[in-house]
């Protein structure tokens, strides 16, 4: 049996700096050309405010999944939905499609103040509703994968520090363990990779197994943490339908009145 308590000290701290050498790490493929990007167009960069960004992925023409901590600033305040933009398939200044965000919901129980606790990793999901849908012919949304077993091979498409101009694809990494709603992967992630989809193959199409919440990239034994998604996403979709229209909302149907020029915190990564 895997115990969560021993890993908690490893995932409490944030590490936001990055080395330029990471972009050249073996196993990462830069999706520069349009042909390289084919099939991954639904993955994009989520730009928050004046400089923060994370990674996001379409699960419907007007819905994007990303990490919940991405849409809170460093003080724990929710950012205005109107300051968020989703740039699908962004590569070297060219996008497949770009849309603003009309509103969003976060998972009930997520606490932006307490940082990367196990409870927060389990709930580190936000669902963004785009102001206008992106046609599936431009970027086909991904479906969720409901499984996840130890040793399963997965892949990750993400943006990150010093590799924010185009997505990087790690075509093969593994699921180390899964326990009580948390998964650990040996995938190569970095600041900005928060919200990046972890894909598992299902027939001829990749499906979203998890989202990157954070991890540790400073040591040789790189790890990333994610969460079980299906139940969370169903609840977020229901909450989005029930919430007020065209405004930032939080799970529990409470209107969030915010106004801040603080930069979003971006990805959080653990020190060894």
TrEMBL record:
GO MF annotations in UniProt: serine-type endopeptidase activity
Signal peptide as annotated in the record: 1-23
Matching Gene3D superfamilies: Trypsin-like serine proteases (2.40.10.10)
EC number(s) recorded for this UniProt protein: 3.4.21.-
GO terms for biological process, alphabetical: proteolysis
UniProt keywords, alphabetically: Hydrolase, Protease, Serine protease, Signal
Keyword match DNA-binding: no
Principal EC category: hydrolase
Family: Belongs to the peptidase S1B family.
Listed name of the protein: Serine protease
Gene: blaSE_1
